[in-house]
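Support reply, case 0932

Customer input (verbatim):
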Amino acid sequence: MTSIILVPLLPVSEELVHTLVTPLSDMFRTSITVESPIRGIVDNVYDYSRAQYNSTLLIKELLQRFDGQSKVLGITSVDLFVPVLTYVFGEAQLDGVAGVMSTYRLDDTIYGLPADNAKFFERTIKESVHELGHTFGLLHCKNFDCSMHSSTTVDDIDIKGAMLCGECLRKITAK
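Our regenerated output:
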């Protein structure tokens, strides 16, 4: 299977990105490498009118930097959006090379709640699997236990599982 590159897009915890290697390697049954952090790329996609960062433009930035031999997931901690939505947890090319996800809205502290590191890490895994799943051609899944189930709120993320369902897993291993 195609290897995966994780790219810390500062600002983001590099330690957090490194902790994703084993669970993602186990899920996708492939090698995972972590690139050196990239500084400044996030600033290039800031939208002053929304005070958010354009995830589609971040994907374009990643595509300019990586050759397409591997799947690439950029990970940041800024608030992402696409023009038709108020916010997104991430975005990825369907059956393509690159995706991006943010930990920003996965952190309970932005909702005025106490920090919960275990929940934050679980949400980060779920969304990483979800965006990488799109790069492997997976659409949103109707199975509530599957990471590919659609999430429009952080509560939706908490409900779904951290693994791919059997059907989604079969689809990516068949490729």
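We compared this against your earlier run and they match. Two observations from our side: The mean pLDDT is 96. The chain has one domain: 4-173. Please reopen the case if you see a mismatch on your end.
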